[in-house]
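Thread title: Can someone regenerate the structure for this chain?

I was given the following input by a collaborator and told the matching structure tokens would be attached. They weren't. Posting the sequence so someone can regenerate them.
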Amino acid sequence: MAQECQDASAVANSLSKACVAMLAMGCIFAGLGCERLQQARECRRLSQAVNPALENIQKAYGHAARDPKTYLDAAKRYEQLSAKLVTLKFSKQELYPAVTDYASLLESGAAQARLIAGILERKDQNALEAKRREFAAISTRERTAVQRLNALCSER
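Best answer:
Regenerated them for you:
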């Protein structure tokens, strides 16, 4: 009987150690899972800030008159979005430079839109074509910045 109690105690002790080890592993994996969940929430918050704002800009100006007022209003919206992005907080430090770069591109787009508004007021066709090319270059850089943000948000 004493031997059976010792055996039962040894088994319980071994199981206890195994349970502690499994619990520790579970906590480690849960911590990693929580980190991924936090990152997913932060990326979703970033997406929820950017996508509707850009969709609204596209919807409002996609078929609008190409006049100074339209470009000035678009510039204002780009600046508002940029200001909103730089206030977001992230647990993944690598997101900060990417978001800052994206916000900077929005500011560049706003500056170009303001310049185009002035050019339209002066009715300077040559300057207008040059600015449109610059604006297209910013759009290309914006696509690259979005790809970078997407890559950071999808890293495992």
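Residues 29 and 68 are 55 Å apart (CA to CA).
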